[in-house]
Each structure stands twice: as C-alpha cells, then as structure tokens.
Amino acid sequence: MRRLRRLAHLVLFCPFSKGLQGRLPGLRVRYVFLVWLGVFAGSWLAYVNYSSYAELCRGHVCQAVICDQYRKGIISGSLCQDLCQPHKVEWRTCLSSAPGQQVYSGLWQGKEVTIKCGIEESLHPKAGPDVAPRRELVLFDKPTRGTSIKEFREMTLSFLKANLGDLPSLPALVGQVLLMADFNRDSRVSLAEAKSVWALLQRNEFLLLLSLQEKEHASRLLGFCGDLYITEGVPHGSWPGATLPPLLRPLLPPALHHTLQQWLGPAWPWRAKIAIGLLEFVEELFHGAYGTFYMCETTLANVGYTAQYDFRMADLQQVAPEATVRRFLQGRRCEHSSDCTYGRDCRAPCDPLTRQCKGDLIQPNLAKVCELLRAYLLPGAPPDLREELSRQLRACTTLSGLASQVEAHHALVLSHLKTLLWKKISNTQYS
Fold first, then answer.
1. For the domain that residue 293 is a member of, what is the CATH number?
2. Where is the chain membrane-spanning (predicted)?
3. Quick one: angle between helices 383-397 and 365-377, nearest 10?
C-alpha cells in the first residue's frame, strides 16, 4: 500500500505527469476495448463450435428415431435388437462432417465399428436439437402392404438400372439385396425387411458399399436397422487435419497441410503402400462388375488405412456411378465448364455451340488421384526414386477424361506407377 502511495506521489509531481495523465484515459479505453473484443470473439467461437457440434453430432436423435420405428414394426434388420437395448451398441466419437449424415465410431460385439445414419428430415430451422423427425413418412413408405416379392424384385432391379446402368450383372446384385433383407434366414422377406433395405438403397454410400463388397479397399458391411448401418472399424486418416473440427479445416493453408502430413503422417514407405492400395482402388472403380464409378471429391481426407497400412476408402459419399453422373450432365445448360460439375470435382466440358454439358469428364479418376499423390508421396521420397516418381506422376495427371484416350493410357500408366512403388518397398518390412 505504501509503495502505491509513493508511486502516486511521484506521478503527481513528475514533470511529465500532465502528459501521462492525458494519455491514461485513452490507454484505459483501449485496454477495456481489447479485453471486451477478446471476450466477445472467444464467446462467439465457443457458441459457433457448440452450435456446430450440436448440429453435426445428433446420434441420440438418430438412435431414438430408428428404435421407435423398430418397436412399431415399421422397420427391421440384423442390428435392431442390439441397437435398441442398453449397452449392446456403444456410440463413441462423433465423426460427422455434414448434419444429414451422422457418423460415429462405435463398439459392437467386441468389434470396432463405424455407425452411419441420416437424419435430413429433422434439420428444419425451427426444430430443436432433440426434436425427433418423422422419417417414416419419407424413407419407410415403400414398398406398400400388398407388394409381392416378385414386384419388389422388379422394383429393386429398376432402381439399380437407373443408378448403375443397364448391366447384365444386376440380377445377381438384386439377389444379394434380397438375401441381405432376409437377415433372419426364414426364406421370406417381410414388409419391415423390405422397407428397411429399400431405404438403405436410397443412401449413395450404401449402394456403393453393396456394389464394392467383394473389393478389399471398401469397408465391409456388418449390419443394419432401417436405414442405419454399420461397417468395420474406422480407418486411420492419412490427413492429420481431418481430426480438426469441420469449421476449422478450410482455414488451414495448403502449406500447413503439407507440414502436418510430414510431421504426423506415416513414414514414407508406409505412404507408398497406402498409395498402391489407392491405385488398386482406382482399378476396381474402372469397368467393374457393376459398371464404372467416378471419384467426385478427391482429397486426402478420404484416404484411410488399417493398422497394417492397407488402404481403405474412408468415405464413399462422393463416389458416384457413371450412370448417375451422365444423367446429371445430360441436357444440362451451361456457360462454362464449372456449370457442368457433379460433386466437387467431376467436371465435364461445356459445348460452346449448344450451351450444353458434354458426357465425358475432363479428368478421369487416375489423373485426379495422381495429382493427390504428388503432394502425398514426393515429400520425403528416397532421392534415387524422386525424379522418376515425379515424372510418372506428372505424366499421369495429364490423362484426359475422353474415353478414347483413357482406354489407351489408363492401365499402362497405372501399372507403371504400381511397379515403381512396389520395387522400392518389396522384400522389406513395409511390404
């Protein structure tokens, strides 16, 4: 207290005290304003993050709706009984990146799983966070009572033709759908089972999972209840920034993305093994048993891997059947090629004469993946490999989407890349 009095005395009798006294109110106002601004900004960020989390992470709503429909006998499925009993299915970390698609890591029957469910109908602006949507009016309305198994088979076949194209392999896929619907193996498909599997087919990712079940680079489907389904455990993300809150991800500059990858990502030989798996996945999407598929959001956030560093596609939401993309582009009016974009980066040229989108994409899957691998593989690559790898990846990114050129170069370029990477890691612990 005495020190304060002495300091005040010095200030009062100091030759510069008048100037200091004149500046003190201004300094005090600035200090108060900065403190207020900091509190306001912190409160706003906390509110935005809480609001974002409350909107993105609504697994409890999803579970409540599904179990309500199950108890009413509207839907069915192999997962329903466990899902609607306490502690049978454990919901863990929220992984949702969009409000309409709820994604959680979880535990079921002692296995790490991913839980996925859509709740679009509940996201009305005036709806509270705990308001349960009445999705049975939208998703569980087909087929209706009185539909025969023959009619349901034809209905499913027509749906698959519209989404995958008129392929000779589709009847076999319809058989898989009916077999999955009859989860209790009683040799009949009940109305609740049919409603559930029909609702599942409306989910793009589920349709892709079903089409790629025999491929090793897509997650394996384990069970379902209504349109909620689970797949094998969450793959590790190859992009460390994917663990950040969704609102913060776009704020990271590209240079920081690369730095995070170098610090936190797998060692280069493991990255090479993951890249080989990604290239094999591109092969699987090209002229497979159920047609060709396009990767319409090619980012590191979708590149995942298992504990053994085997590639797994982390998210199939933006992988689209060729028939779906062509239907979207057909007859579409445009001024620029940006008007002919499906998803994020499935882009077709715009015909300047007809002002309509053309059917062929500008970049095939392989060209987009090679562009991604340039940022993923070149940093930290062994010196004796870097120049050749850079040359091959650069040539790969110039591949055109035109069918005549893709057929000629696609397989050859892909084979050369895989061989180059395998030679470097074969006969080592990384292979």
1. 1.10.510
2. 29-48
3. 150
